[in-house]
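Reply to dn_fold:

You asked what the input looked like. This is it:
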Amino acid sequence: MEYLTYYAALCAIVLAVIYNIMHSKKRKLPPGPFNLPIVGYLPFLGEKPHLTFRKLSEKYGPVFRLRLGMSPAIIITDYNIMKEAFSKSAILNRPPNFSQTVPDGLGLSSVNGQEWIEQRRYTMRAIKTMGLGKSKWQNFVQDEVDEYVQLLEKQNGKPFDPKSPLIASIANNIFSLIFGYRLPHESPQMSVIIKALYSFPKLFNQTGLFLIPGLFTFFKIAGLSPEFTDMIAFNNFFREEVDKKKNKKDGTNESSFTEDYLYRMKEESKVETSFQGLYI
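and this is what came back:
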């Protein structure tokens, strides 16, 4: 049995070497460290991947390659190279598995290319038109500031954790821009938003779930990712709010970002653009 164990280990090493050689010769890629089959370099990243990348850059240079699970990745650690790279539209697309983080796979976070350019251009214009510099939205922001100041006064100089109230305040500013009204900080809806804001970065910390084929899907189906459950609740809440706007008959297209977007969808329903019901 002992010989079989050694033999199996030797076979695994040989297969790993062959795997790395085959993948490194497929394309003209920068140098990089040894990768394991299936999991790639994930087991070696540690708790602070950015420090691992820094050490690797000392050996392989400011641009090197590795595999995160089954996904090839190019790591850039030099600011000037990074700035030059991200000025090229060819590399700005999101990873194909990025949309898994969105419960229905839709939204601005899952589009690329011309769709992304069109949606981004519209969003920037709409926010400027309806929110920034407009008295209605400024009133919402001022209300949030006043409420937060009142919260501070209630503490009577005693220490407290301002994180959740501050997150709620910032989230409410964004929510009021999107839907045209504020939420009470203690409301169930605000609780859903805050949970999602806490869960979203945690979801991305679970790198292996996205990069090993089928693993994230399994976690979703089995309900093993509470963070994704929070994202589903967040998505459902926003869908309900959008449906309310769809059913609203007396609103104008300038009341909120959502109403303007719905108006734009209706106006361009007969034109081939990225507003044909893909996102709302």
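Residues 2-24 form the longest helix (23 residues).
Hope that clears it up.
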